[in-house]
Amino acid sequence: MKGTRIIRWPFLVSTVVFFFGCAGGAQHSLAPDYKDRAPRSIAVLPILNETVSLKAPEMFRPILLNKVSLKGYEAPALAFIDGRLRDKEIREAGQVNTLTPQELGNLLGVDALLYAYVTEFSTTYLLAYGSMTVGARFELKDAKTGEKLWESAHQVKESKLGLDQRSLGDTVQFAAGQSYAPYAQKVVDVSFQTLPNGPRAASPPQAGCLMPGI
């Protein structure tokens, strides 16, 4: 009688990490005449949240403000934007679209408006598997015409797979305690590589791989 064969993997790496992104950069579209219509100033509007996480918008917005400035565009302070919106009884992100881009541009005194949507902001844990996913899309609209100048979307996901008993605790800790901030920053960084630099930028415009509209 043949005995039962017990298979052990003593030399297997305890945790496998997967990192997913959009190969080649973020999907995006850019107005063909962007160079001629490039804005000097951009207002980062309140973030529209398509997830169940209440902290997603408050995490993304300061990152976006900083990125817009680094790209060489003038960017009003968030407190100034929110104060002007409150003057129009707009207190939530979902109310922003009650005003047209032209009305918002006049109200905020800017050339363009950045609309942002958080599309993914979640953690998944199932037995020995844990993952975090963060995604967003961005639209830049001309404050004079309301036309879309630029659009981009990106998503990042990191996963861990525990392959033995010792690594299960690491996987649980990853799913429970990992910060979303680096993922939000990565989404913004990759997406904004496709937006040409503004007039105040110290370096030449960054090239991006132009893809069909989203």
Task: Give a description of the structure.
There is one protein chain. By secondary structure, the protein is α/β, with parallel strands linked by helices. It has one domain (15-192): 3-Layer(aba) Sandwich (Rossmann fold), CATH 3.40.50. Helix content is 29%, strand content 28%. It contains six helices and seven strands. Strands 1, 2, 3, 4, 5, 6 and 7 form a seven-stranded mixed β-sheet that branches. A hairpin with a 5-residue loop joins strand 6 (129-142) and strand 7 (148-162). Helix 2 runs parallel beside helix 6. The longest helix has 15 residues, at 56-70. The termini are far apart. The relative contact order is 0.24. Residues 1-24 and 207-214 have low confidence and may be disordered.
Mean pLDDT: 80
Taking the sheet with the most strands, its summary is: 7 strands, mixed
Specify the CATH homologous superfamily. ABC-type transport auxiliary lipoprotein component
Outline, from the CA principal axes? globular
Report the CATH architecture. 3-Layer(aba) Sandwich
What proportion of the residues form beta strands (DSSP E)?
25-35%
Rg (CA only): 21 Å
Low-confidence stretches: 1-24, 207-214
Q: What is the CATH first-level class name?
A: Alpha Beta
Structural class: alpha/beta
CATH fold naming: Rossmann fold
Number of helical runs? 6
Secondary-structure element pattern, one letter each: EEHEEHHHEEEHH
Percent range for helical residues?
A: 25-40%
Number of strands: 7
Counting structural domains, the number is 1
Termini Cα gap: 63 Å
